[in-house]
Amino acid sequence: MDRSPTPRSVPALYPPLDPFDQRMLDVGDGHRVYVEQCGNPEGVPVVVLHGGPGGGCSPMMRRFFDPERWRIVLFDQRGCGRSRPHASIRDNTTWHLVEDMECIRRALGVDAWALFGGSWGATLALIYAIAHPERALHLALRGVFLMEERELQWFYGGGAGQFWPDQWRRFRDMVPEAERGDLIAAYHARLFDTAPHEQIAFARAWASWENALASMASQGHGGEAGAEYARAFARLENHYFMHRGFLGEDGWIRARLDRIADVPGVIVQGRYDMICPPLSARLLADGWPNASLHMIPFAGHALSESGIAEQLVRVTDAAGRRLARHGAGGGEAG
Asked: Are 58 and 4 in contact (CB under 8 A)?
C-alpha cells in the first residue's frame, strides 16, 4: 500500500538534493529498474523502499537523511516509476524484488545497508531482512503493513469504509453487487481483462480510494491520479494482493521475526492511520524485542504528515550517528 507522498513542504526534512548517480539496471526477466544514489558516496548506505506495490520513489524521499552522513539509494520497483516495462506483472513477485535488491547491492559494492520503508515499503524491508539478516544494519519503518489477511479485509472488505462511507461506496459500487464480496478479485478482472480505457477508469478508482484516506489533512479528498501512474499503481498493488504477497501463508512475517532478533529497528506509526491501522505496528513490536515503537498522535498514513516526517528524521539522524561510529556498511559486496 501507499503511493508516493504528496509534494508539499515539510519543514523537518533536509533540503532538496540531486543524485550523484542515476542508472537503469538490468535485473533479468526482461526488467530494467531505475536506481539512483544521493548524499555522501562514502557515507552509511541506506536503501529506500517505496510503497504500493507500484508507487515509485520520489525526490521527497531523499530528504529524510543527512546528506553528509548517508549514502542514499533509491529505486523504482519492477513495473513502476521509471522502471521498465511499465505496469508489467510478468515475473514480478516479492521474491523478484528481494533479488533485485541484492542485485542493486552487489552492483553498488555495498556489503550491508540500512533499510527505510513505509507501508508496502515496510513489508518489503521486513521480508528482505528476514531473507538476508546479515545485510540489514537497521530498519526504519513507517505505517506498518504485514501482508496479512486481516489487513486486506480491513481496507478492501469494508472496515475502513465504516469511517469513510461515501468514498467507500464510490469504490465499491464500481462493480456489480454480486461481486462485492471480493473486491480485490472484482477489480483484478477489470484491471487486466478489459479494454485500456476501462482499465484506466478502474485504476483511478482503486488509487482514489487509497489516496482519499492517506492523510488526515485530505479529509477524504485525495485527488485523481494521472492515468499512467494509476494504471501501474493499481495493477501492481492488485496483483500482489491477489497473491497475498507471494508469501504462501498468512502471518509469514511475524512467524519469522526470530531471523531479525539481532537487527535494530524503529517503527513510526500514525495513531489514526486508516490504511494500515496501528494494530500491525503493535504486533510487530511485540514480536521484535530489538525494535522500538513510536506512535504519533494526530497523524494518519502519509509519509508527508508532519509528525511522522519529524520523527523519521530523528530516527535516521540517530541511526546514522550510531552506524557511522561503527563504520557500518563499507567494503565490497559478497
From this structure: yes
C-alpha cell of residue 21: 548517480
Here the cell at position 225 is 491520479
All three cell numbers of 186, joined, read 472484482
- Name the nearest CA neighbour of 120 among 3, 34, 239: 3
Residue 12 lies in a domain: no
The length of the chain in residues reads: 334
* Annotated catalytic residue 301: yes
pLDDT at residue 326, as a whole number:
84
Catalytic residue among 2, 58, 301, 304: 301
In a domain, 6, yes or no: no
The reported pLDDT for the residue numbered 333 is: 40
pLDDT computed for residue 321 by the predictor:
97
pLDDT of residue 12: 86
Helix (H) or strand (E) holding 36: strand 31-39
Average pLDDT over residues 198-219: 94
Is the residue at 289 inside a domain? Answer: yes
Residue 187 shares a structural domain with residue 104: no
pLDDT at 9: 54
306 is catalytic: no
Per-residue confidence (pLDDT) for residue 50, from 0 to 100: 98
- Check 58, 119, 280, 304 and give the catalytic one: 119
Sign of CA dihedral 316, 319, 323, 328: negative
Q: What is the pTM of this model?
A: 0.95
Question: DSSP states of 90-114 as a string?
Answer: TT-SHHHHHHHHHHHHHHTT-S-EE
Whether 26 sits among the annotated catalytic residues: the reply is: no
* Count: domains in the chain: 2
In-domain check, residue 250: yes
Q: To the nearest whole percent, how much of the chain has pLDDT over 90?
A: 91
Domain that holds residue 192: 150-245
Tell me how far apart the alpha carbons of residues 72 and 92 are, in angstroms, rounded to a whole number: 24
Per-residue cell: 334: 559478497
Question: Do both 36 and 141 map to the same domain?
Answer: yes
